[in-house]
Amino acid sequence: MSTDLDLTCAEWVKSSYSNGNEGQCVEFAPGAAATAGVVPVRDSKDLSGPVLVFPAGAWASFTAAVRHGQPPTA
């Protein structure tokens, strides 16, 4: 099984929860979920920095909890 994920052509989307004043800015690449079953996440202020990769199901659970104002559970 390959662990390489080519993100050079990924289309990144800034979270609607990110504020626009150089604060906490998170971007994710939703297209990777369709092709690799994972969701890459990065800091939009550091485009060449590290990328965290989450299983698509875990990301969906996390974002649903955030939308409903609930803390995510493990």
Explain what the structure shows.
This protein has 74 residues and is α+β, with helices and mostly antiparallel strands. It has one domain. The protein is built from two helices and four strands, in the order ββαββα. A four-stranded antiparallel β-sheet has the order 1-2-3-4. A hairpin with a 7-residue loop joins strand 3 and strand 4. The longest helix is centred in the C-terminal third of the chain and has 12 residues. It is globular. 8% of the residues are buried. The mean pLDDT is 83.
Along the chain, the helix and strand elements come as: EEHEEH
Report, as a whole number of angstroms, the end-to-end distance. 26 Å
The number of distinct helices, counting runs of at least 4 residues, comes to 2
The order of strands across the largest sheet is 1-2-3-4
Radius of gyration: 13 Å
Give unreliable regions as ranges. Answer: none
How many strands appear in the DSSP assignment? Answer: 4
Approximately what portion of the residues adopt beta-strand conformation? Answer: 15-25%
Count of all domains: 1
The shape, in one word, is: globular
Sheet having the most strands? 4 strands, antiparallel
